[in-house]
Amino acid sequence: MTLKELLSPVKALKTLSFATESLILTWKEIASLFGLNQDIYTNPLHKPLAKPVTAILIGAGHRGNIYADYAFIRPDEVKMVGIADPNAVRNGRFARKHDLPAENRFYNWEDVFKREKFADAVIIATPDNLHFEPCIKALEMGYDVLLEKPAAPTEEQCRIILETAKRTGRIVSVCHVLRYSPYFRQLKQILEAKTIGEIISVQHLEPIEYVHMTHSYVRGNWRNSKTTSPIILAKSCHDTDILRWLINEPAQHVQCFGGLSWFKAANAPEGSTERCIDGCAVEGECPFSALQIYYRDKKRLYVFDLPDDTRKWNKIILRNLKKTNYGKCVYRMDNDQPDHLTVNMQFDKNITASFSMEAFTSYEGRCTRIMGTKGDIVGNMETYTVTDFKTGRETSWSLKTDYHGGGDHRLMQDWVQAVGHQNAQILSSTIDVSVESHLMAFAAEKSRLNKTIEPVILGV
């Protein structure tokens, strides 16, 4: 069937009137069918820059490099001019990639700000507990900021960042990259066009996937909420942000249940050892084996700062499994992050949402169901299906995307434009909106710990 035939109301109704029949279309075809904008990426506020924005990266880990790599895609828009990272390998690798002079390399973030301001902006991609101080210092010195999520590990610090950004007039963009993925951008358009009528409720699932959970939240840097931030913030402020964005109404109250059920000493199998390489009797059958994940399957290796020569990898991996937390038994860590959460939320207009974060899944990728007065939507970040109640018509879209749904560099594009033109309204999420989604997460954690229903209190 041609698109012209499909768009004929009689033909469309006759062909697509059965709920058992589903049509998979491109976004261009869906946009034509529903009367939507086909171009979801072009921001009308974008304009050519007089010169590239100059930026300093603080924290040259996995996320920091992803953002900084935008300089290779659009060298006319951004140029990296400095690096601060205590890891000599990462520091040197980044300096070589971006051809940085020795005087612009720092091993402590504090040293960046001992110099007079020498760039337009800073990108802060440090561990969670090192977001607040460099962000405040940068704002006070007149830098604009791209700030990896979460903005800060406490509610008080998030509110101070918001107040400081307003007082100094600087731009702060928190890295809510899911807003920039084609999947969520298209869902946003469909909802704004009232294609399924008024939103009544939303169900949203974040399957962390068991390897990711053990890597980041049992063995990794985010394993302990007291030294980093609660997992509802560290992992799922993406989700509180997306729910707030899609629903487009302020949150009023939240209620949260969940906790750490499995990854603790009481569940350690008989015969297990402190490290997976210490002769553990059950290593061969353990799905969380560090030997299996890192050494045999070669997953999540970016934490080991491996050289380009792959022949050296096995030796370096084994050395790290003997010395770092990545080689420890998942039942013998100092982790306290919940491995499952359920959050109930009430928004203005009596819209409700339920959110689940689950460690014990074999898959990643958010799954969302949106219920409206005229239809519903079911999606999983690679495909979604819109069903019309009146006709029974099902319309589906499918697309494979990269990490974070393809949003990382589109976020960078908006941020660079905002800094270059000194216009925070170019951003999809200003610091005001980002802090609101963080407040939802803080209220959820308070509810989980106290077994209460918590209000979401906005304002500085």
UniProtKB/TrEMBL annotation:
Q: Which domain of life is it from?
A: Bacteria
Q: Which residues form the Gfo/Idh/MocA-like oxidoreductase N-terminal domain?
A: 56-175
Using the record's annotation, list all stretches that form the Gfo/Idh/MocA-like oxidoreductase C-terminal domain: 188-419
Output the Gene Ontology terms for molecular function: nucleotide binding
Checking InterPro entries in the record gives: Gfo/Idh/MocA-like_OxRdtase_C (IPR004104), Gfo/Idh/MocA-like_OxRdtase_N (IPR000683), Gfo/Idh/MocA_Oxidoreductases (IPR051450), NAD(P)-bd_dom_sf (IPR036291)
Kindly give the Pfam families that the UniProt entry links to this protein: GFO_IDH_MocA, GFO_IDH_MocA_C
Q: What protein am I looking at?
A: Gfo/Idh/MocA family oxidoreductase
Organism equals: Panacibacter ginsenosidivorans
